[in-house]
């Protein structure tokens, strides 16, 4: 961003301006590398990544109530046709926001050439290769994936939350969580309780974060690195943490994947 005179975006509007500036630059550049670099790249071919991306966009545009409205509709068995016509909340400008309107934001980015032309087929391995070859202007990814990128590749980028800043007062962030729970009827309850107790130890929580590539939610634990500390601070700064519709709204991965397929088909019409 700094190379073209822009600062990190603090809103969807600023993010769109940055993508527009880069796309215009790309159209007139003499650099083969810049011509092959799309403004925004994410693994849209991965079902969970696509639903995480849209979940985050929904939280930014409509807040927690909009996210929850979509989640509850999906739990109730709503079809893609039902959802697109459903009003899910109010956008940051005070206008009614429908699920179809939310998808139209991503659709407009596709039409304007901001996204990679094969956004719907890209996998995490493709994104990894683009980052290695410096073929990414902006990208959206999970912390757990971010950590797996080689330092010489990821060090060329600034890191921030996506979307940059919530447009609604009902702030929220998408952060898939792993919970440890023990049922009363579980076998070997004492052993399970001992394991859970050890996980609550700050030093062990830090070790678990290092090994898993995720951030611990134990405030007393020292974050293993700046990335983990930032992820925890982003989550602590908002009122709601959502795991994303892929994990939050479907009884099975197959059902969640079917919905992701329907979204790709809708956006590619």
Describe this structure in words.
With 269 residues, the chain is mainly alpha-helical. 51% of the residues lie in helices and 8% in strands. α3 packs across α13.
| pLDDT < 50 stretches | none
Taking strands numbered 1, 2, ... along the chain, how are they ordered across the largest sheet? 1-4
Average of the residue pLDDT scores:
84
Helix content range: 40-55%
- How many DSSP H or I helices? 13
| Strand composition percent | 5-15%
Q: What is the structural class?
A: mainly alpha
Strand-and-helix sequence, N→C? HHEHHEEHHEHHEHHHEHH
Strand tally is 6
Note the gap between the termini: 32 Å
What value does the Rg take, in angstroms?
20 Å
**Global outline:** globular
Largest sheet, described in full?
2 strands, parallel
Keywords:
269 residues, two-stranded antiparallel sheet, 6 strands, 51% helix
What's this entry about, in short?
Helices cover 51% and strands 8% of the residues. It has 269 residues and is mostly helical.
Blueprint of the fold:
Layout: H1 12-28, H2 32-35, E1 38-41, H3 47-75, H4 80-84, E2 87-90, E3 96-98, H5 99-111, H6 124-132, E4 136-139, H7 143-146, H8 151-154, E5 172-174, H9 189-199, H10 202-212, H11 226-236, E6 240-242, H12 245-248, H13 253-267
Parallel strand pairs: 1-4, 5-6
Antiparallel strand pairs: 2-3
Helix pairs in contact: 3-13
């Amino acid at each position: 961003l700094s190379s073209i005179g822009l600062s990190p975006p603090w809103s969807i509007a600023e993010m769109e301006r940055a993508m527009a500036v880069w796309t215009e630059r790309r159209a007139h550049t003499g650099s083969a590398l810049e011509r092959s670099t799309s403004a925004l790249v994410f693994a849209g071919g991965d079902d969970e990544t696509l639903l995480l991306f849209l979940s985050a966009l929904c939280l930014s545009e409509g807040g927690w109530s909009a996210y929850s409205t979509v989640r509850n509709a999906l739990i109730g068995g709503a079809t893609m046709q039902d959802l697109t016509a459903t009003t899910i909340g109010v956008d940051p400008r005070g206008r009614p926001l429908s699920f179809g309107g939310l998808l139209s934001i991503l659709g407009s980015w596709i039409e304007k050439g901001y996204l990679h032309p094969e956004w719907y087929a890209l996998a995490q391995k493709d994104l990894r290769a683009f980052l290695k070859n410096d073929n990414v202007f902006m990208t959206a990814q999970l912390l757990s994936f971010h950590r797996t990128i080689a330092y010489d590749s990821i060090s060329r980028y600034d890191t921030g939350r996506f979307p940059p800043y919530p447009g609604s007062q009902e702030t929220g962030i998408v952060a898939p969580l792993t919970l440890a729970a023990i049922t009363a009827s579980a076998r070997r309850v004492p052993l399970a309780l001992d394991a859970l107790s050890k996980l609550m130890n700050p030093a062990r929580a830090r070790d678990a974060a290092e090994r898993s590539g995720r951030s611990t939610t134990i405030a007393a634990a020292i974050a293993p690195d700046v990335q983990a500390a930032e992820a925890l601070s982003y989550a602590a700064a908002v009122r709601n943490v959502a795991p994303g519709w892929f994990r939050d709204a479907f009884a099975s991965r197959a059902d969640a994947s079917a919905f992701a397929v329907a979204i790709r088909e809708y956006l590619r019409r």
